[in-house]
Structures are given as C-alpha cells and as structure tokens.
Amino acid sequence: MAHTSALTEKSFGSMVYRPKGEGPALKISRIRLADTEADFDEARALGRSWVDWQLKVYPELREPILNYFDPVEYEQTLAALPVVHARPKGAVLLADLGGSAVGWVMYLELEPGIAEIKRLFVDEAGRGHGLGRKLLEAMFDQMRGDGYQKVRFMSSYFLTHARKLYETVGFEDMPLPGDYPDEYRDLDYFMERSL
User: Fold this and answer.
1) Bridge pairing between strands 114-122 and 172-174
2) Bond preceding residue 88 cis, omega within 30 of 0
3) With the CA atoms of 6, 11, 16 and 20 taken in that order, what torsion angle do they form, in degrees rounded to the nearest 10?
4) CB neighbours of 20 closer than 8 A, spacing ≥ 6?
5) CA dihedral sign, ordered 34, 11, 128, 171
6) How many angstroms separate the CA atoms of 105 and 133, rounded?
7) For the chain, where are the E strands, in sequence order?
8) Mean pLDDT for each consecutive 10-residue tract of the chain (195 residues)?
9) For residues 192 and 117, what is the distance between their CA atoms, to the nearest angstrom?
10) N-to-C CA span, the chain
11) Quick one: pLDDT at residue 1?
12) What number of CA atoms fall less than 13 Å from residue 183's CA on the CB side?
C-alpha cells in the first residue's frame, strides 16, 4: 500500500467562518493528523465528549450506549488510539476551530484496500461550520493517499444528523454482517462508498 501525506496546508489550510449571528470570524487553523501525545490527548477528550453527548441527548438509550461504550473498555480503546490507528494504515484527524480541537474522525484498515471509519464527532462548540463534512473530505483524501479504494462504517439509526451527512458524501447502505449481534440489529446500520 503506497503512502503519501494527503493533508497539506494548501488543501486544508486556514479557512475563516462567520459564526451564526453577529460576532467575529472564527478560524479553522487546520485539519490535521494526530501524531503527538498531546494530539492524542485531544482526541481522547473528544472521544469522551462523544459518549457524554450521546448520554445527554439520548437518555432513554443509556443502557445500550453504556453497553457499547463500556467505560473501562472504552478507556482502554482511547489509550490505544496511537497503536490501533497507526500510520500508514490508519489515522486520527482533528479539526481546530479558534485554536481548539473541536472535531475528530479516525480510520483503520478493515481489509486490504478497504478502510473503516471509527467515529466522527464534532463537539457542540464546533457545530454549524461544516466541520463534519470537512473532516470526512480530508479523511477521504488521506485514505486515497494511503492506497485505499473503499471505505465502510457502522453507525446507529438514532444519530439521524450523521446519517444525512454520510448520504450527502456518497455513502450507500450495505447489509448487516450475518454474525451481527441480535441486540443491535434494530439499532445499527452499515454503509460504504468507493474512494
């Protein structure tokens, strides 16, 4: 698998956005690959915020959310981010707004030529600026540079805003795996797209 660095200042450099309503422009300094321990600490904080946000917005789904994101196991997963998503087969991308990391997306190799997205999240402080889409576009460029031809992921139906975003960037439904756990069959879906 060939490796090139797809993220460049030219393609994902500084962009300025006006927040909703009156006020000064906020600046995305960049969408960047996490490669230092400080970067991964920012990613871990976003990972915890992702679960906290789900619990806040969907309190009726607390049990399945905490079953999926078992607190002890999830902390182990977050600790292992630099290993699990190591370059060149995977990556963690961060989006900065006003100098702070407010969004992340990550991927890893599912099988040769196919990558899998593992989380896409923009914190409430970063919403309304198209960062989810920009993170996906930057990730697609990085995946192509890493030699992938296709990308897949799994998400939950209750995250309706995310599904709309995935559809607008070309993802299509795919069947659930035959061995997918019965307790999640009505909650989750799988999608894929070519790169």
Assistant:
1) unpaired
2) yes
3) -70
4) 128
5) negative
6) 10
7) 15-17, 26-28, 31-33, 91-97, 100-111, 114-122, 150-156, 172-174, 188-194
8) 46 46 56 95 96 94 91 96 95 92 96 95 88 94 97 91 92 92 87 96
9) 10
10) 15
11) 46
12) 6
Question: Would you call 15 helix, strand, or coil by DSSP?
Answer: strand
Are 150 and 113 in contact, with CB atoms under 8 Å apart?
A: yes
Enumerate residues 6+ apart whose C-beta is below 8 A from 43: 34, 78, 81, 92, 94, 101, 104, 106
Angle between helices 37-57 and 71-79 (to 10 degrees): 150
The label of the residue with tokens 């797209």 reads 193
Helices (H) and strands (E) in the chain, counts: 7, 9
Write the DSSP symbol of residue 19: P
Cβ-based neighbours of 118, under 8 Å, separated by 6 or more: 85, 106, 107, 108, 153
Tokens found for residue 136: 């996906």
Coil, helix or strand at residue 154: strand
